[in-house]
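FW: tagging you since you asked about this chain on Friday. Here's the raw sequence from the shared folder, copied in full. Didn't touch anything.
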Amino acid sequence: QVQLVESGGGLVQAGGSLRLSCAASGRTPNSYAMGWFRQAPGKEREFVAAISWSGGSTYYADSVKGRFTISRDNAKNTVYLQMSSLKPEDTAVYYCAARYRVVLSTTPKEFNYWGQGTQVTVSS
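HL: got it, structure written out here
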């Protein structure tokens, strides 16, 4: 079993920054791609960003492109989401996810493990 634990969420003013972390533990696979998703109240879970096992490939939702950066440190089994120029519409619970593939994906059903989520609230 793989455990994913997110941290770094909180309350921030519009225009501010936050960095989310997601630490993987347990029986982590030899190689796995990671992703970040978010879910706002009353809305479906949506893709935010993804990164391949090597970190050489990344992909972002149009709504966060240029403002968010995903990265990973495989030695620490940790993936990060640096969020800048935050907007009130970025308010949501943010989830990290892992999949048993080296290549990235933007589809929730293609991920095998999920964290419990961390709340990000952006005030106007």
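FW: The chain is about 0% helix and 50% strand.
HL: agreed, and The mean pLDDT is 95.
FW: great, closing this out.
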